[in-house]
Design a protein that fits this description.
Number of helices: 2
Number of strands: 10
Radius of gyration: 21 Å
CATH architecture of the largest domain: Sandwich
Largest sheet: 6 strands, antiparallel
Shape: flat
Structural class: alpha+beta
Helix content: 10-25%
């Protein structure tokens, strides 16, 4: 067999390995993407082990300054991979209204859960056009040391602290709140 024939066989084997890998990984990837999707379908909603908790029922205006109005609309603990109890995250829901005169991106800084520093993440950039309102969800997956050890531990959530910040199209910070505490 010549070199060209060997290369063709190697290429076919690599393609087969790739197809099998994608086929086996697809359900897991889709489960994670569905859980992280900000517009969850009814099907992914039903896979949540814990419904929104007591802290989720209160709405609270947390910022109303410099053309930005932010309202805390709730939080919840979600098991984002069904069947794996260690795969849970705290979701923080905030509605932001932009009246700054320019497009902004909002993010959280200096975040902590139960007095333990934790990084807030977002699956998509939280861009908000001028004169628009957007529901923003931030999530925390690193909850070690907070007393929260599963998606059923919402009663162990004592407080969430953060600064709400916004930057313009040039990624220049145009707003940073003081420390916000939700208890």
């Amino acid at each position: 067999m010549n070199q060209r024939g060997k290369n063709q066989i190697a290429g076919v084997l690599i393609l087969i390995i790739f197809v099998v890998t994608v086929y086996l990984a697809y359900p897991h990837v889709m489960t994670i993407l569905d859980a992280l999707s900000p517009s969850s379908s009814p099907q992914s909603q039903s896979s949540r082990e814990v419904p929104p908790s007591a802290p989720a029922s209160k709405e609270l205006v947390i910022v109303d300054d410099s053309g930005i109005k932010a309202t805390y609309t709730g939080c919840e603990l979600i098991n984002y991979i069904p069947g794996q109890p260690e795969a849970y995250a705290l979701y923080l829901h905030i509605t932001v209204e932009n009246k700054t005169g320019e497009e902004i991106t909002v993010y959280l800084q200096d975040t902590s859960i139960n007095e333990v520093m934790s990084m807030a993440l977002s699956a998509v950039p939280q861009k908000i056009l001028d004169e628009k309102k957007a529901a923003c969800t931030f999530f925390f997956t690193q909850l070690d040391g907070t007393g929260i050890t599963s998606a059923k531990d919402i009663e162990n959530l004592e407080n969430i602290e953060f600064k709400l910040c916004a930057w313009d199209d040039g990624m220049k910070t145009i707003f940073s709140s003081g420390t916000i505490v939700i208890e």
